[in-house]
Inverse folding.
């Protein structure tokens, strides 16, 4: 057999092998998962009357999504005004809760309560701070109808009165600027009726303190300039510390993030107190008012400081319990507001 014939035979055999090779079977198409939609009914928490029935709600819908759908049929009840619960007397569900993760069947019942008109927390903080700032200055400049007419628009002869006005104004201007540029407020809104209660407390306290500190018959502290200077340095130190803690807490999480982290000391020496205290912002706030109380030697200021200490202790203890509950590795050496004490 010649070479050409042998090559032709080999070519023919290769072609037959290719033809006889089994072809791979085509992959079977995956069946699309069937979405199980929910039926959501919203009932009045008091009367149990059905207010709305939502059909074909996606399982990934959040409580905020359901509130938005509810608002379409009831425009006056915007999401911040709504409270949805699984039980009429239960706890309000969070806006970020997902429908399919809740302990409900494909037909879910939510109980609605009207929280009333709402106002943002930022507005509340600004109103709380602007009031004391303006009210104190009214007493400082001795506007008419506050003291005797002969003292209208007069100025105190005591340096500590002017220093106290600067410290008080600095404190509330700082709080206003922090509200605008530093704080990341996690709470959305609060009932409008609460703003009158909150502002009434701060505004009345500012008026009560300012009346006595700026009174024409005001007497200076017992230990004179040494007492004023020492307390002023305490006040200033704590104000810087309070601001440092607020900045550290702001830098702890990015804008819009709801992931909670344990605050730790940073390179800033004012934050080293985090090693011993869970809420050092309240610790520094307390120190500021103690310094202001000693500086002015005024009973209303001391009373305001005592009440503020009680309230801040309640807030700090709640925050401390939240840290312990959420983080298993939370430092056990820390106290709520006062190192090793409280």
């Amino acid at each position: 057999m010649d070479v050409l014939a042998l090559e032709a035979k080999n070519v023919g055999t290769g072609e037959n092998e290719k033809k006889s090779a089994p072809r791979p079977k085509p992959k079977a198409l995956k069946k699309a998962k069937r979405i199980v939609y929910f039926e959501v009914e919203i009932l009045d928490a008091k009367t149990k009357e059905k207010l709305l029935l939502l059909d074909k709600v996606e399982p990934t819908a959040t409580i905020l999504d359901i509130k938005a759908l509810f608002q379409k049929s009831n425009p006056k009840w915007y999401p911040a005004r709504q409270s949805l619960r699984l039980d009429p007397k239960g706890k309000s569900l969070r806006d970020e809760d997902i429908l399919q993760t809740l302990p409900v069947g494909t037909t879910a019942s939510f109980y609605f309560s009207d929280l009333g008109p709402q106002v943002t927390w930022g507005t509340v903080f600004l109103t709380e701070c602007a009031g004391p700032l303006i009210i104190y200055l009214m007493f400082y400049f001795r506007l008419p109808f506050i003291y005797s007419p002969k003292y209208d628009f007069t100025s105190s002869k005591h340096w500590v009165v002017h220093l106290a006005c600067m410290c008080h104004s600095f404190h509330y201007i700082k709080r206003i600027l922090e509200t605008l540029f530093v704080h990341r407020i996690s709470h959305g809104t609060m009932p409008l009726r609460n703003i009158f209660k909150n502002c009434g407390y701060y505004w009345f306290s500012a008026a009560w303190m300012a009346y006595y500190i700026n009174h024409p018959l005001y007497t200076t502290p017992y230990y004179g300039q040494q007492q004023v200077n020492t307390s002023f340095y305490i006040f200033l130190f704590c104000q810087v510390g309070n601001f440092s803690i607020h900045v550290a807490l702001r830098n702890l999480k990015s804008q819009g993030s709801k992931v909670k982290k344990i605050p730790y000391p940073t390179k800033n020496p004012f934050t080293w107190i985090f090693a011993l205290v869970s809420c050092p912002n309240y610790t520094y706030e307390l120190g500021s008012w103690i310094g202001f109380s000693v500086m002015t030697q005024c009973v209303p200021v001391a009373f305001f400081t005592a009440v503020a200490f009680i309230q801040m202790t309640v807030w700090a203890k709640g925050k401390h319990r939240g840290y312990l509950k959420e983080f298993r590795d939370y430092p056990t050496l820390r106290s709520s507001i006062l190192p090793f004490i409280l």
Summary: The first strand starts at residue 38 and ends at 44. The two ends are 107 Å apart (CA to CA). The chain is about 50% helix and 10% strand.
